[in-house]
Design goal:
Elements lengths: L3 E6 L4 H10 L5 E6 L6 H4 L3 E2 L10 H12 L3 E4 L2 H12 L7 E2 L4 H8 L1 H8 L8 E2 L10 E4 L10 E3 L2 H10 L4 E4 L5 E8 L5 E13 L2 E8 L3 H13 L3 E9 L5 E7 L7 H5 L4 H9 L14 E3 L14 E4 L6 E2 L2 E2 L1 H12 L3 E6 L1 H5 L3 H7 L9 E4 L15 E4 L3 H11 L3 E2 L1 H8 L1
Parallel strand pairs: 1-2, 1-4, 2-3, 4-5, 16-19, 16-21, 19-20, 21-22
Antiparallel strand pairs: 6-9, 7-8, 7-9, 10-11, 10-13, 11-12, 12-15, 13-14, 17-18
Helix pairs in contact: 4-5, 11-15
Length: 431
């Protein structure tokens, strides 16, 4: 099978980043990313196009068509609820040519976009929240207000009084007034194939939620999740990865919050358990028969910010120390080595600049071999005498210097006027 070109948009969203993690290691995929806003997608995706028109604007379709033509895109992965619906409509209208959108039908995507339409459609199929048509109908406080079309926690409010409801509805008259659900909240990640079979439905508790995003989650094997998934799928007809969210009433009844015609940003939880929903969705679009191999080992997940950096200067050579840098107590510094391999892949010259022979009486290559680090990783190895300075060995300003010693870094920075980094900086910047 030849690799297929997959375009992710918007690639800097939480969903887009998960799609990158899920597909970037597959030999079957060449990943491309695009964004409208300035975001981290440019630093994550090797093949990136920025400044694309925003979803909902007239310019997005022709821009997307240009991307498809220029990069020979085979598949598009929409990574935001708005474009999920929009791209599905364009594909079904023939506006994207032979390029396929990975996801569900336009009808399913449109339904999932509207909370009100979802509750109306699924009322009687599963338990849906009570919707108050006006403030006069409210017979119990608090109530929960949320936009009909939205994502995450944006624009949502808990109102404890009639006055609060009137205030929030004054800010946004379109807010739905829903019963307040005080119990635990769950996401159920699902997968349905091209034949209409629901192959996977697995729940996880949203133990900590930040801005509507599940920051901490753990498995929950409530058997009700599978039945709810079966009923929703039978009514809506999703394809590929999708999910729904439910929350408990005070009596423990599970009540629908929303459905989504895409994978969740936190579906990495299922991927670590062996079910890569993004890759399965792509394979399904390729017409492949897919099997699921779920790892039943207990897993908990906590998410945190991860930094990405772009250096605003050019350099050709990386000078790096050996002791307490490439090797820590004689053992390989795996994280720094990963950064060095990444730099070598970018075409940088790697130079080992060390006093190892003078201080330990053995060749640096022997110590590297002893730590199972191949000396050929480095283009050159420079032995520095005890009475020599490392700065004297650096002959160009198109270089960077990595060393654990502040004294060495200061000397190189002053004399050579090149950027210098300690271990934590180098690992985070270049990893």
């Amino acid at each position: 099978m030849q690799p297929v070109n997959v375009f992710v948009f918007p690639c800097g969203s939480e969903v887009g980043l998960e799609i990158h993690r899920a597909l970037s290691q597959s030999k079957h995929v060449v990943l491309f990313g695009g964004s409208s806003a300035t975001d981290c997608g440019e630093l994550i995706f090797e093949r990136f196009v920025g400044n694309l028109p925003f979803a909902g604007s007239d310019g997005l379709l022709p821009a997307l068509q240009s991307v498809i033509e220029a990069w020979k895109i085979d598949f598009i992965f929409p990574a935001h609820d708005t474009v999920v619906e929009e791209f599905a409509r364009w594909q079904e209208s023939g506006l994207l040519g032979a390029t396929q959108v990975v996801g569900s039908s336009a009808a399913a995507s449109t339904l999932a976009r509207s909370k009100a339409a979802t509750y109306t459609r699924l009322h009687g199929v599963i338990e849906t929240p009570r919707v108050y048509e006006s403030v006069d109908e409210i017979d119990h406080y608090p109530v929960f207000l949320k936009p009909d079309i939205g994502q995450g926690a944006k624009g949502t409010f808990t109102a404890y009084t009639r006055e609060a409801v009137m205030f929030y509805r004054g800010l946004d008259p379109s807010l739905l007034i829903l019963e307040h659900l005080p119990g635990r909240e769950f996401t159920v990640d699902c997968f349905s194939d091209s034949q209409g079979a629901l192959l996977f439905a697995n729940g996880r508790e949203r133990a900590r939620i930040l801005n509507g995003i599940s920051a901490a989650t753990k498995a929950n094997g409530d058997p009700r999740f599978s039945e709810l998934a079966r009923r929703i799928h039978a009514e809506v007809g999703f394809r590929g990865g999708w999910f729904f969210q439910v929350k408990e009433r005070r009596d423990g009844t599970l009540v629908l919050m929303e459905i989504a015609a895409r994978i969740a940003g936190a579906s990495c939880f299922q991927r670590i358990r062996g079910v890569n929903l993004a890759l399965l969705s792509l394979f399904d679009r390729l017409g492949m028969h897919v099997d699921l191999l779920e790892n039943a080992a207990p897993v908990q997940m906590d998410r945190c910010l991860q930094n990405r950096f772009r250096l605003e200067f050019e350099y050709d050579i990386v000078y790096v120390d050996l002791d307490d840098t490439v090797l820590l107590s004689g053992r390989p510094n795996f994280r720094l080595l990963a950064s060095l391999y990444a730099l070598k892949d970018q075409g940088k010259e790697l130079v080992l600049l060390t006093r190892h022979r003078a201080r330990h009486g053995r060749a640096p290559s022997d110590s590297l071999d002893g730590a199972a680090v191949h000396p050929a990783l480095f283009d050159r190895i420079i032995d520095v005498a005890e009475d020599e300075s490392k700065s004297a060995k650096i002959a160009t300003r198109r270089a960077i210097f990595i060393d654990d010693s502040f004294r060495e870094r200061r000397d190189v920075a002053i004399r050579c006027r090149v950027p210098v980094f300690d271990l934590s900086e180098a690992i985070e910047i270049f990893g």
